[in-house]
Specification:
Length: about 500
């Protein structure tokens, strides 16, 4: 009887997983077809149908609704996600947890830095040369960053941020004992609030509140539960928005093609592709191998050769979750990583190691700002980096929704999201490349942790063999999940977290 129930549960899990993968494929294809259809309809309308400005507004209105939806959920999702991530407790040994945290933070910051440096230097979105605007002093820019990190009003931080402007004022002064007035110009730095969510301030405050609530123990558990419920509710709303995504995207791209698409923007899109590919190559072929080499003093080519099948699967499926079974097989069978470490680390790495996606989102956001002729300051670049990291931190398992993440990032930092419609044409290709880098980063992480924790694992095994009884050893062995149990826990994790992008 128990065996029959177990078989029924396993069949149900396999069927549910298969259904989700089919749904992923359908979502991916619908988004791609919607983008191509919008492009084709826009070209036809531009060629054969004369439109007034009012007609163009009507065509783009459903797309405007899509942008407003993402603006609606951006702030609650960012705040609750940061608090939830900080307050969550993962049962990992202290030394291993420290190594994991250092690796993920380091590689994420490097990927953001690579993306920002390349897109600022190459400027793929600059299609016309304009006069340089007057720049504020770097001292005041840094002071603005510090001021925004400590907002005096959290409600105001949801829609305004602090900025110091450089004003030139003409001062009339009268000479002593003379009726002659002299005119001279005086430069003053005036602080004011401008439109746009203060992402830096909200992130710092959410991070602080998460640490404080976690330290309060049971007293803070109630508020953490409420914030967790709000976070899950917001993710459900995001999933509803994704159902509307193909429709809004169709009209958004149609309006974009009708209004602003030209050869200059197509050329800029090609430059954008080159920048993203260059950034991904630098991070995957140079940064990650160097991190592995410096950490464990071993040849990273051995790891690449062992996990190559998983990387190929990631390229074909465009999903880190769909690649996870193959990643488990490659790590355990081909490069002999301890199964305790793979069972513990790979699910975490799949949800945290998003270097390729973060790099893409940063480059895409700055590219859109350049297309819109918006000069970004340091505080805005930092806000873009922080928002990109947060939006991709727990966003795994649904392929082809990098478009949704781009809209989310642009909406959160107050940049025009309509320009992002042009990215849909190339997103299907970039999503696959991003996923390959994500999976490669996860494999490098597991390989590093396996080498650094080898002595610790051997000591634990020796202690268990020396002090444990047969029953205790049986219980300890039972703690190591089998492959099917691991995949079941992963499925339950993803079903609870309701992730919405890869």
């Amino acid at each position: 009887m128990i065996m029959e129930e177990s078989e029924e549960v396993s069949e149900a899990i396999i069927e549910d997983r298969t259904w989700k993968r089919c749904l992923d494929r359908i979502v991916q294809n619908i988004v791609l077809v919607s983008g191509l259809a919008g492009f084709a309809i826009g070209m036809i309308i531009t060629t054969y149908v004369p439109l007034s400005e009012q007609d163009k507004f009507y065509i783009g209105f459903p797309g405007e609704i899509l942008i407003r939806m993402f603006q609606m959920v951006s702030i609650p999702l960012i705040v609750t996600a940061v608090v939830s991530c900080v307050s969550e407790t993962v049962d990992i040994p202290t030394k291993m947890a420290r190594n994991v945290a250092v690796y993920f933070v380091l590689t994420t910051l490097v990927s953001v830095a690579i993306g920002l440096i390349l897109v600022v230097m190459v400027k793929p979105g600059v299609v016309s040369v304009t006069e340089d605007e007057k720049k504020s002093s770097i001292v005041y820019v840094l002071l603005d960053v510090a001021s925004n990190m400590v907002p005096h009003n959290l409600v105001q931080a949801c829609f305004q941020q602090y900025q110091t402007d450089r004003l030139e004022m003409e001062i009339h002064t009268a000479e002593p004992n003379s009726s002659v007035e002299t005119l001279h110009t005086e430069v003053r730095m005036v602080g004011n609030y401008v439109e746009g969510a203060n992402i830096l301030g909200l992130t710092v405050c959410s991070f602080t509140f998460g640490i404080v609530l976690k330290g309060m123990g049971e007293r803070g558990r109630i508020i953490l539960n409420v914030l967790s419920i709000i976070n899950q509710t917001t993710k459900y709303v995001v999933n509803w928005i994704l159902c509307y995504l193909p429709v809004g995207l169709l009209f958004l791209i149609t309006r974009y093609v009708v209004e602003v698409l030209d050869l200059d923007r197509l050329y800029a899109l090609g430059n954008f592709l080159a920048v993203v590919f260059l950034g991904l190559i630098i991070h995957a072929a140079i940064v990650l191998p160097i991190v592995y080499l410096l950490s464990v003093r071993r040849n990273p080519w051995v790891v690449f050769r062992g996990v190559y099948p998983a990387l190929w699967t990631a390229l074909l499926t465009s999903s880190s979750s769909a690649t996870l079974p193959q990643t488990f097989h490659c790590c355990e069978q081909r490069i002999s990583i301890n199964r305790r470490i793979t069972c513990l680390m790979l699910p975490i790495a799949t949800n945290v190691s998003m270097n390729g996606t973060v790099l893409y989102e940063v480059v895409a956001a700055v590219f859109i700002a350049q297309l819109s002729e918006i000069n970004l300051e340091l505080r805005q670049l930092l806000s873009l980096g922080v928002t990109s990291v947060i939006s991709t931190l727990k966003a795994v398992g649904i392929p082809a929704t990098g478009v949704a993440t781009t809209f989310f990032v642009l909406s959160a930092v107050g940049l025009p999201a309509m320009e992002a419609a042009i990215l849909v044409v190339v997103n299907w290709l970039l999503d696959r490349c991003n996923t390959v880098v994500n999976v490669w980063g996860s494999c490098i992480a597991v390989a590093i942790i396996n080498q650094l924790s080898r002595d610790e694992m051997e000591k634990q095994g020796a202690n268990r063999r020396r002090t444990g009884s047969g029953a205790e050893r049986h219980d300890q062995d039972a703690e190591i999940p089998s492959s099917s149990q691991t995949f079941e826990s992963i499925e339950s994790f993803h079903s609870v977290s309701e992730d919405y992008t890869d």
